[in-house]
Amino acid sequence: MLPPELNGVCMDEGDSYRVHPKICNLEMVPNLRRSNSGFCKSKRKAHFATGNNEKENLSSWIPENIRKKECVYFVESSQMSDTGQWLMGKLGRRCNLHRAWCWVFSKRVMCECGYPREQHLEEATKPTVFLGKEWDPRKHIQEMPTDAFGDISFAGLGPKVGQYVRVSADTPPCVIYQLMTQHWGLDAPNLLISVTGGAKNFNMMPRLKNIFRRGLVKVAQTTGAWIITGGSHAGVMKQVGEAVRDFSMSSSCKDGEIITIGIATWGTVYNRGSLICPMGGFPAEYVLDEESQGNLSCLDSNHSHFILVDDGTHGRYGVEIPLRTRLEKFISQQTKVKGGVAIKIPIVCVALEGGPGTLDTIYNAITNGTPCVIVEGSGRVADVIAQVANLPVPEITISLIQKKLSLLFRDTYESFTQGRIVEWTKKIQDIVRSRQLLTIFREGKDGQQDVDVAILQALLKASRNHDHFGHESWDHQLKLAVAWNRVDIARSEIFTDDHEWKPADLHPMMTAALLANKPDFVKLFLEQGVRLKEFVTWDTLIYLYENMAPSSLFHGKLQKVLVEEKERSAFAKVPRVQLHHVSQVLRELLGDSTQPLYPKPKHAERHRLSIAVPHIKLNVQGVSLRSLYKRSAGRVTFTMDPVRDLLIWAVVQSHKELAEIIWAQCQDCTAAALACSKILKELSKEEDDTDSMEEMLTLAEEYEHRAIGVFTECYRKDEERAQKLLIRVSEAWGKTTCLQLALEAKNMNFVSHGGIQAFLTKVWWGKLCVDNGLWRVIVCMAFFPLIYTNLISFREKRLQPMSCLTRTRAFFTAPVVIFHLNILSYFSFLWLFAYVLMIDFQPMPSWREYVIYFWLFSLVCEETRQLFYDSDGFGLLKMASLYVSDFWNKLDVCAILIFIAGLTCRWSPSTLYPGRIILSLAFIIFCLRLMHIFTVSKTLGPKIIIVKRMMKDVFFFLFLLAVWVVSFGVAKQAILIHNEERVDWIFRGVVYHSYLTIFGQIPSYIDGVNFNLDQCSVNGTDPYKPKCPESNKDKQPVFPEWLTVILLCLYLLFTNILLLNLLIAMFNYTFQQVQEHTDQIWKFQRHDLIEEYHGRPAAPPPFILFSHLQLFVKRVLLRKPAKRHKQLKEKLEKNEEAALLSWELYLKENYLQHKQCQEKQNAEQKIRDIAHRVDVLAELLDSDRVERTRLVEQRLHGLEEQMSQTAKTLAWIVRALHGNGFGSEEDVPTTAPGRAPELKEYDSEDKPNETTAQCHVNARSLLYPGSSTVRFPVPDEKVPWEVEFQIYDPPFYTADGKEVATCDPLRDSLEALSKISYNAMDGQIDRQSFHGTSAIQNRLPVNPMGRTGLRGRGSLRCFGPNHALHPIVTRWRRNMDGSIYRKSLKKMLEVFVVKSPLSDHWALPGGLLETGESLPLKLKEVVRREFWPQFQNLLNQGAEVYRGYVDDPRNTDNAWMETVAISVHFEDKNDAQLNSFLHGGDPEVGVRWQLVDKRIPLYANHKEFLEKVTVLLGAYY
């Protein structure tokens, strides 16, 4: 019964669920968790009705593949519910109601799983299968489909939605990884950051907290990392969540989301009932309530994903740790391929604060080879490790750790037993011993101002000691840096003096950086010596185009070309990308005036050009980028300018920074900039996305400015050479010129440049001096003998003397003279044409009219010449396209065709008058042609441009006007006139009269006042009068006058006021817009006129026919090719062109330097620089303050030690005096140094001078290899048997051997052990140790090197010494020419190593010797059986370098390994003998020659053997 205080109170949920008062019907489902599921389902029924396919797929996939755990056997437990315990602790005995609540929760019947009876299935409370059995989680907890997954939304915390799933603790990691990458849509990470530490809230210094948050977010954001935490809203998880929250609030959408994954225990999550929904919660609303959570924990709202691990229990922490460990290991074994780079996903552990669990996590991470970053200053375990990490391992003693624990674990220090302190000491020693995996982040340490740098440095430091050696190690580190996009780490950690990079070694990573659009790395590689002309090969360029971003516009155009070729050639599938496909697209962008950049190969060459390039990965297996370059190295480079090819590839994808870097390497930089501008402008026309289009146009304008900048530098230096750059034929850019590219791209700013206009002016004046006045030219045209006087001056000195023929030709071939002669001729033609039309148009043509016909024929011949004259070899279609694209040419053709039509009608007497009318229309068009002539004028030219622009506005305006005119005209005509059938009068009434109304000619009859029957025809029979409006019998109008007046007023309102003012506004806008750029537009269009008259024959029409006749004879009869005009296009000699391009390249560097100086002088840039310097200064002051504080603390600590020792000394003196004597000198305590030593961080290569360990290390690893047996922890100081270790109680372990007959007994029974003869030959087993006679205790031999933490023989074959043999086969490392490779003046060795499929380590080809055998089994696996005797002879001839104990992980207190290491060295390239011995054993065993270095990672202490060999041979180590 309930107490009276709680009558009517119904608890619907267990301790971990929120109480929902509205849900009280528990009869729907058998248990509460299912009732919650039903509530969730009904609550979101409408949401699922509108769910998309993705959510439906997720709702079906997750229950099929992911399980949860449920207790299926209820066994009553004596424990109180955790909520009851919490209430008892919180409320105590405050009042009757509080005591009643405590009584309810304390009396609730709990199961051994931690859940109350109500939260079990009905079958679990009435079991028949398990009746009478004890509760066993392995049997009584079963898996079933999960019922909690979907989206999670935190109530009251905004619209942010995460994703969650409840999984069984036994879920395979591959399933969870598949869920995250395929169904949650997460990209595979470039880095995995596992953050561990205190699970409860702790205090950190504000500055350290900010540094940690900033650094963690930066490394995650820049590298694309996943952050994995415990997911709860407390401790280090809360710190990570707040860091992510601050980043999200301060960053833009472009920065991307930081993936933060919380892996928590389902049974410890407070308010988890709201997450249960069998069909998925989309979203599930979660309430974060820290005040009521009790001993449970809430999820952190700033995490993006949650994996809730369920083992079927409630309230038990740490359930998620095994699954988290397996998942992290699985992810770290995955290979991510991006941009041609394949890397195994690296993992790093970051530790803050923490307790025993954190220490275990760090120890396991170090043991598994995972680098760890410890944040000093965060407290507890992190500070303990950080404070001793700088000490040599022998100085890390039990007493030191005990002292640190007493200071840093003040609240819980009493709970530490002696055994626990010993265990902590052993683990910390092992952690510190692996310095290559341990990084201590200290605030204010030089070069480590941020956590992100410490994390990445830790990973690189660990990779140097991993299974990557020589060049492989550095290459692996570079791959990591590129994947993280951290060029700062690459500069500081990789490109150092420790390794000399060859440019060819960087080519694969250069390709990866290009594909991933990482311009900083491209720039870095160029600084390190990569030459683009060597880097860009045929295969590389094809590979780059094949791997373009599918979203790019150029990729779509390229695929379209491939599909068209497939359809033309009837291929079964789309052909692979070849460079002639690229050339086809580029010609569309650059214009047909350019030649193909990559010509299509002939049929004989097709096979060579289409070499298959497989998918590229930077790994050991398969084809790699490095092998691609090795294969391509011998091929001839296919292009003249590989830098151009790479620039085009970057530009077509709008990679701004990449293109900028590559353009800086270009030689033909002006043409390159103009070509890029043209390409980008053409692409922008087809781009649908407005932002992308604007970016392309902005980038095109930027390249135009670069071309202007370089040309300006050239023009200032040398005008003549700069103008040569304009007309030089560029072979690299399709045999076009800079000027032509600028015109094709409509780069008005470039064309209007003063230098280019000066060049055009020079072309306009021909061989005449440009300072000749126009009046002088006109005078000389009128009186041509004056050209032989000094009235006209010529540019060429040889023409200054009197020479009739040359001066006459020079004068009359000048474009300015040809232009004015043509003007005079054209005006004469128009005057004569007008005279004939108005005065002399007879039925029979007069001689004047025949002159007009002859004149027109000369004009037709000139237009034909312009159409067919092809000096550049473009072809007829291209010339026709260029001809038609010009507006004035189209006007000429139109005038000529109308003239011919009129002439045809004119010859027939019946159509004489219509012919004159048509010829009059032709005259109008011929007059309009005068506008083109006046464009050369600086005054009239801009005005004509404005008129042309306004004509476009008029056409758009007429469309709007037509709507109102037609609508009003039709309505007016229908209201006033009944059934008008005359089409001409319908047009007049609807269009003509309505149009005239706009200008004030209002019809008099529209309002009925001025109605007059005499002005109209009643029946519409009079062809010269309109039909009368509707009228009655009295001849009075009957139409609604009020309606017509209203329509008229509205019509005039909208047309006269609105539309006409709109037209005026459009004209005004066009005028202002053109007026701002009128000078540029005029200068741009001036070129067309100059080019036209530059190539035009000298004689004006009709005398131009003689020139046409001469041209016909040369081209058609004599077959002479057309000559290119050198003034507009000139092909230079190779030497001259090379000198000109070198000069341009030099001035381009000046331009870039000048531009950089201008940017520095920019006010905004100065402010940014000052702000940066202030920030740096503030950081330096801050770090200096921290460093000073640290030094003061060290000195105070040293002073405290000194005072403590002084006090002990005084106490000893007092005791000695009281004892009437003095103690021995050994009893006198030593005084501490007056100043504490400063901290120093050691790298793996720079360890402190530790005394060579006399004790074994590998033999004391806590987890015995190949088993689950855990050794008793033995710190270094307790290894010797002579040192007392009272609590030492090692377990006994002996593995079951397959060959029992050849093994010693499994147990330590007296009967079995009494048969063994130690320290002698026991049958065929040699039990004699190289270290003398072994001690025997309890009938078992004792390890001569000390304690190992394990009794028995482990997985070794015999008690006592187990003898092994380790051959060390070496040869000299040689260069390509056969000479011995040297480093630091010493020769370098290569050693023969093997790797079994069950091992992660390379090792020497040796091992334990079987009974009666002379060669180890591992060696036999790689050597052919028939060569075993020969190899035995090699060993007999070798030099013994070591004989003794081996520090092996398999050693125990009673069994250990001893070996003989023999050096077999091949001196003079005679190692081919060894190659004949190999490959006779197991094919799965890996073998290789490994470069010998001090960081070589080998099994056990094989490295020590190698060092002895290098000393023996005098080699580098």
Any overview of this molecule?
This protein is α/β, with parallel strands linked by helices and 1517 residues long. It contains 54 helices and 30 strands. The strands form 9 sheets. Strands 10-5-6-11-9-8-7-14-15-16 form a 10-stranded mixed beta sheet, sandwiched between helices. Helix 27 (642-651) runs antiparallel to helix 28, helix 27 runs parallel beside helix 29 (669-686) and helix 34 (754-765) packs parallel to helix 46. The longest helix is centred in the last third of the chain and has 56 residues, at 1163-1218. 37% of the residues are buried.
Protein traits:
1517 residues, alpha/beta, 10-stranded mixed sheet, 6-stranded mixed sheet, 54 helices, 10% strand
List the helices and strands and how they pair.
Layout: H1 32-43, H2 45-49, H3 53-65, E1 67-71, E2 76-77, H4 82-91, H5 96-107, E3 110-111, H6 122-125, H7 137-140, E4 141-145, E5 149-154, E6 161-168, H8 173-183, E7 191-197, H9 206-223, E8 225-229, H10 235-250, E9 259-265, E10 281-286, E11 305-310, H11 320-332, E12 335-338, E13 341-344, E14 347-352, H12 356-367, E15 372-375, H13 380-388, H14 398-408, H15 418-433, E16 438-441, H16 451-464, H17 471-484, H18 487-494, H19 507-515, H20 519-527, H21 532-535, H22 538-546, H23 553-569, H24 579-590, H25 606-609, H26 625-632, H27 642-651, H28 656-663, H29 669-686, H30 690-717, H31 719-727, H32 738-744, H33 748-751, H34 754-765, H35 774-782, H36 804-812, H37 815-838, H38 847-868, H39 876-885, H40 887-906, H41 912-928, H42 930-934, H43 940-976, H44 983-998, H45 1041-1076, H46 1078-1094, H47 1104-1117, H48 1134-1161, H49 1163-1218, E17 1292-1294, H50 1310-1313, E18 1321-1322, E19 1325-1326, E20 1336-1337, E21 1340-1341, E22 1351-1354, E23 1360-1372, E24 1382-1383, E25 1386-1387, E26 1389-1395, E27 1407-1408, H51 1417-1422, H52 1428-1437, E28 1439-1446, ...
Parallel strand pairs: 5-10, 6-11, 7-8, 7-14, 8-9, 9-11, 14-15, 15-16, 17-22, 23-29
Antiparallel strand pairs: 1-4, 2-3, 5-6, 12-13, 18-19, 20-21, 23-26, 23-27, 24-25, 26-30, 28-29
Helix pairs in contact: 4-5, 8-11, 9-10, 9-16, 12-15, 13-14, 16-17, 17-18, 19-26, 23-24, 27-28, 27-29, 29-30, 29-32, 30-31, 30-48, 34-46, 37-38, 37-41, 40-41, 43-44, 43-45, 43-46
